[in-house]
Specification:
Elements lengths: L1 E8 L3 H10 L5 E5 L7 E8 L2 E10 L4 H5 L4 E8 L4
Antiparallel strand pairs: 1-2, 1-5, 2-3, 3-4
């Protein structure tokens, strides 16, 4: 089974602030279990318009923050896992 780790940089003011403080390019991480990226899990914005309403969310590359910030950059790692 493949698991995908999606590291992203959306360009929001909050991610820009965190990037400058942490000196990291990618601040947000999601996990996906298929290569369609239509169901990714993370802790992020519950409401894409409010950076302070956060929690466990299900994301999609075509909706939410990714739809609002179309120039978001991502790097994706594919990891093969076994039952063990």
């Amino acid at each position: 089974m493949d698991v995908y780790l999606v590291f992203s940089k959306t360009g929001t003011w909050l991610s820009t602030l965190l990037r400058s403080l942490l000196k990291e390019k990618y601040i947000h991480v999601s996990v996906a279990f298929n290569d369609k990226f239509d169901c990714m899990y993370s802790f992020g914005r519950v409401n894409p318009n409010n950076p302070f309403s956060g929690g466990f969310v299900i994301e999609n590359f075509r909706t939410g923050v990714y739809k609002k910030f179309k120039k978001a950059e991502c790097i994706i790692y594919k990891i093969q896992v076994t039952k063990e």
